[in-house]
Write a structure and sequence with these properties.
heterodimer, A: about 400 residues, mainly alpha, B: about 160 residues, two-stranded antiparallel ribbon, 5 strands
Chain lengths: ~400, ~160
């Protein structure tokens, strides 16, 4: 089967399977992952090797667009908008699962440090689309719902930062010969990667803003925006800088230079649906089914520790922010879905660390399917317990 | 030719405090809902309201939450909000004010800008009309593709000046 035929099948199977599955009130991302697993090499084997091998390229492009889009959250307007409660809960509910999983995986499960930190960082991500879906389905409204939506809107940005730090430290650990100064050298390496990404994205962001005056049509604007995001990503790869941070910082810089630069984000929206659909289906297709049984303990530990980390982090954040009792008790439950950014970061880990890549990606794809099935139910319970769903749902 | 030579100076404008009821009253007899500039007490342009923003009235969430969610990837892949199933009550038309649903990202042109540049900007951003501001950022008028076409027609002698 040729690559173009494979892409056509991915788009159509993904689209119609998601419409079918939406009747069961399951997020579309789950449908795309299932479509990928079914079309992939271990079930119907409908996708050519060429297409599977090019998935790294598709994922890298999609991820740079995703990170660029997330970067617009670092605008002055957003920071003046988000309250203390959203800020504290989102940060601590992202950092605590990272620390918990990193420590338990490294000390108790005897996993390599870089692998432990990567799993921990991925655990920070949530699933805004699934959360919004549940909120809409149950017509939830009220202060708890607003806080929950605010948190899931920004916590993927914290995940990208934590992940970039983890991956930079991991690369630093691998690139240095074992010595007593290993951790310090790895931290210096990580700092260099991150500062380099800031400098690069600052320069590209300035160019993006200045040269935009020569763009004349919507088509040219799309081409120009895609071109500069890819240039930024490509240079970050070339100079071995943090790719995700470079893309996210580019978005942050562009949105803060001028409010009218929102046009760069709006124009990318026309690509969102097909690009993200292909991205998720391809992620599903890379699930190594034979490896699943082998990684049972790691997968199960990840599932449980992420829940513990999210619940404890949300509680601690709510305590620090002086939130009400309901927020302290149930906010963590609302943050359990995991989807897009987790898969994206797992794909980056697969590309950057070939020795552990399949291990990480298979675990994250499998746990994402579970979290996307169970997570929305937990979010619904949290909303019902907060008393913010419509009347017919409150008897839960 | 500069924008101020072709723009409309008589512009209906609203403030963030204008209630939804007042906004609907202003435009209910129009063929379609136009893009309405939002100004502060000093007539400084601070936003706009278009029919897309009016749909936000059906959203159960606050303006801040909607603004936060706007920058989130993957949201479009889920079912959009079904405005036919949203519970809204008649008093909401008085409770909602423009500040709740206005768009603060407004693309404008300067009154001294060349008409050709303004036309290209509208084409680039897929806009039929944009607000015009003066050197102080105050709303000076509105200019649309139709105004520019009319001006061209006049210049070429297709219309009397």
């Amino acid at each position: 089967m040729n690559v173009i035929l494979g892409l056509g099948i991915i788009l159509l199977v993904g689209l119609f399977l998601s419409r079918l599955i939406s009747k069961l009130k399951i997020p579309s991302i789950t449908a795309y992952l299932i479509a990928g697993i079914l079309l992939g090499p271990h079930v119907f084997n409908c996708l050519s090797q060429d297409l599977l091998e090019s998935s790294g390229l598709i994922s890298s492009i999609a991820l740079s667009f995703i990170a660029f889009t997330i970067g617009q959250h670092f605008s002055r307007e957003v920071f003046s908008t988000i309250g203390k409660r959203v800020l504290w809960i989102s940060i601590i509910a992202a950092v605590l699962p990272w620390l918990l999983i990193s420590v338990v995986f490294f000390t108790l499960l005897k996993q390599p440090l870089h692998l432990s930190m990567i799993f921990g960082a991925i655990a920070a991500a949530t699933a805004p689309a699934a959360t919004v879906m549940v909120v809409r389905q149950y017509n939830a409204k009220g202060p708890f719902t607003e806080t929950l939506l605010g948190i899931v809107a920004i916590d993927d940005a914290w995940c990208l930062i934590i992940f970039a730090i983890s991956i930079a430290i991991g690369e630093g650990l691998q690139s240095q010969a074992a010595s007593s100064m290993l951790i310090i050298k790895a931290l210096m390496y990580a700092t260099g990667e991150i500062i380099g990404a800031v400098i690069l994205s600052g320069a590209i962001g300035f160019i993006l803003h200045r040269l935009a005056r020569y763009v004349r049509t919507q088509g040219e604007l799309l081409t120009y925006t895609m071109g500069l995001i890819m240039l930024n990503t490509g240079l970050a790869i070339y100079w071995n800088l943090s790719v995700l941070l470079a893309s996210m910082f580019l978005g942050a810089i562009v949105v803060n230079i001028n409010r009218e630069n929102i046009r760069f984000f709006n124009i990318l929206r026309s690509l969102d649906h097909p690009l993200y659909l292909i991205f998720f289906v391809m992620a599903g297709a890379q699930l190594q089914i034979p490896l699943l049984a082998k990684f049972g303990l790691i997968g199960l530990s990840y599932l449980i520790l992420r829940v513990v980390g999210k619940m404890a982090g949300a509680w601690l954040g709510a305590v620090i922010a002086g939130a009400d009792k309901v927020t302290k008790r149930f906010m963590g439950l609302g943050l359990l879905p995991q989807a897009g950014v987790a898969l994206g970061t797992a794909l980056v880990a697969q590309a950057r660390f070939p020795d552990i890549g399949d291990y990480v990606l298979t675990t994250i794809v499998a746990t994402t399917v579970i979290y996307e099935l169970v997570g929305p139910v937990c979010t619904r319970i949290a909303l019902v317990k907060a008393g913010e769903t419509s009347k017919d749902e409150k008897e839960l | 030719m500069q924008v101020k030579d072709v723009m409309n100076k008589e512009v209906i404008r609203v403030t963030p405090a204008t209630p939804l009821a007042g906004l609907i009253e202003l435009f209910k007899d129009f063929h379609t809902f136009p893009m309405v500039p939002v100004v502060d007490e000093k007539n400084k342009l601070i936003g706009k309201v278009s029919f897309e923003n009016l749909v936000d009235v059906f959203s159960p969430h606050t303006a801040d939450t909607r603004r936060l969610l706007r920058g989130v990837p993957f949201l479009d892949i889920e079912e959009p909000l079904n405005i036919f199933k949203v519970e809204i009550t008649p008093e909401m038309v008085f409770l909602f004010v423009v500040d709740d649903f206005m768009d603060r990202h407004v693309i404008s042109v300067h009154e001294k800008q060349q008409v050709e540049d303004a036309y290209l900007l509208m084409k680039k951003d897929n806009k039929d009309n944009v607000p015009v501001v003066n050197g102080k950022g105050e709303l000076a008028g509105m200019v649309g593709v139709f105004d520019i076409v009319l001006a061209l027609f006049r210049e070429k002698g297709l219309l009397q000046k």
